[in-house]
Amino acid sequence: MTSDPVAPLEIHDVTVAYHRKPVLWGVDLVIPAGQLIGIVGPNGAGKSTLIKACMGLLPMQSGWVKIFGLPFSKVASRVGYVPQRESVDWDFPVNVMDVVLMGRYGRLGLLRRPSKTDRELARSCLEKVHLLPYANRQIANLSGGQQQRVFLARALAQEADLYFMDEPFAGVDAATESAIITVLRELRDRGKTILVVHHDLPTARQYFDQLLLLNMNVIAFGKTEEVFTAELLQKTYGGRLTILSEVAQALGAQSAPR
Amino acid sequence: MTRIWRILGPVLFLLLIPSALRAAGVRDLVETNWLEQIGRFFTFRDVAVRYVLAGSILLGLSCGLLGSFIVVRKMALVGDTLSHAVLPGVALGFLWNMTKDPLTILIGATIAGLVGTSLVSAITQTTRLKEDTALGLVLASFFAAGICLITMIQRLPTGNKSGLDKFLFGQAAALGADDVTLMAIVAVVAVGSVIAFYKELLATSFDPGFARASGLPADWIHHGLMLVLTASLVVALQAVGVVLVSAMLITPAAAAYLLTDRLHRLVVLAAFFGVLAGVAGAFLSFVGPSLPTGPLMVVGASTVFAAAFLFGPRHGVLARWWRQRSGMARTQRENTLKSMFHVIETNGFRAEGVTLTELALRRRETMEDVQRLGKKLARHGLATVTSDVLYFTPAGRQRASEIVRNHRLWELYLTNSANIAADHVHEDAEKIEHILGESVVRELERKLGYATVDPHGKSIPTPRAIHGDAGLVDETKGRRK
Prior knowledge:
The complex is a heterodimer of chains A (258) and B (481). Chain A has 258 residues and is an alpha/beta fold. Chain A has ten helices and nine strands. The two termini of chain B are 49 Å apart. At the A-B interface, helix 3 of A face helix 8, helix 9 and helix 12 of B.
């Protein structure tokens, strides 16, 4: 919330390793409130690792993370999460409503069932992502874009102040993409802070207020128009040819009048 | 529905014949004994029968209930390993005070099970071996050690060892009051914790990362589930046996998974199937003397699974076969209608009917085949057959025009919008024509500017031609100059 005196997310000297090989190395960050932030970098740069480490899903080698000035376990209910779509089994015996209601579980506490109010809230979240007519569908009978929107609705149902989203735009149709970005901007306008792992450079420039360029550590973090430069992107992507051409294309689009 | 029974009836009849024969055979041999046993079972005169029945209901309930979570968490192999790993613990629990005290055996077996599962995680975390290898290793080595220990105990001169050998394949008849009490306690704990923590179990099974990120105690739920699971397996051992007890976890839940799309229904259904299998196994092993209970229970559970696999209304083999068959039959009828339309079209819409010879020539089939096709159309009210001429009924003419329209629209769409050459589009349209819905057709017509001619120069039947009550001949004559 904008009224909060402390930053929504503060990361200090965080190092994360898989089998002793560091993926993130000494990351320092202070994320301001009320921003829509894209995390951009090449494959294996540690983008997902960073947000998972922030939520305590991965052990940290060193450093600490504070969310609204507190360790994650104390403020879990103020954090929303959209995992990668591939991380779950979509044949699981649940319907769309069941999944969205899971967004309420963290707030309910042990031994309590979702109430009528929770169901009403879940319905309104489904409505925001245009999935209300699908509420009773088994989740396997949805398109990839619809599945992604189910995850977004579940995160909305968490009513969090800080959101982590892992590639919500990966492999979705155009309608879903615009639905998601509308919802994200609306959240931002209500003072929420959103960090989105994103893989597509041209749209990254369009979508996000601020960009975090990441490759094992922070290459740059700042306003999109200041950070989205050929120099910094080259530093992030380390001169890979395919990526460079993509960057060139994106920069070309930037200079063209819109 | 009646059509389904026409198929199912003979199948069920065939299934019943051998069982009737077998029943007759058994009755001839041991008539009195057999009937007497059934009487004893159902009147619950015997204390032993009551224990057997209560025990199998309780074990079926808790195994089915917990098994559904094991199956949706993809931990079936973990369940199997756990059930084998408890065997050395059973032996050590017996050695503790040299009697078959259910409580010490439960404690020993639980410890062995936990050691086994922690060994699995230790192996996967410290070496490059993957989980399946680690599970296989632990399963085999613990089971072997357990068999060695039990064989050694059998040779010991002291102690009341009766029933210890039954742990391998199970003997429900060996259940005593203490065993059943313990089973009841475990079942109450299992049912209670599933009801209390259903929400957490659901969330951690579906998406453990999200569950943990939203502050749910995922690790505690996992360990709690494993603990209750171990206890349920151990108390079921005596009746089902180490070798097969994991089947009582997996099979009822697998059958339920084929029948429902919601977890809470799956859990209830799995528990019900577990109870059903348990009672069936106990009954059969009681009636047929000296048959091991475990294999019979598992055969019962597998029968339930086979029934769900074959006859499940949505995912069942039979239902799928039926849907496919009726789909194929419909496609065949529609293709016949289309051929009739083509013949009439080639004749310049002068004749109302199609002779069987013309149809046979068009379809490159024999007269017999074409006659058969004509009868099928007649049976569905799509055409009438006189001696050797086929006439459309209004419904048949409408469907034929729709199919031809769908085909030509799709061809036109592919050539115009997808830039596919005109000679490539026919095959694709042959399949698409049968599945295009009305709304898609409207959309296609709009996109193509209500075109009247397909890429091959043939006219596309218009909605008026299809739905109007004017005759086909009059309707199309004007357009075909």
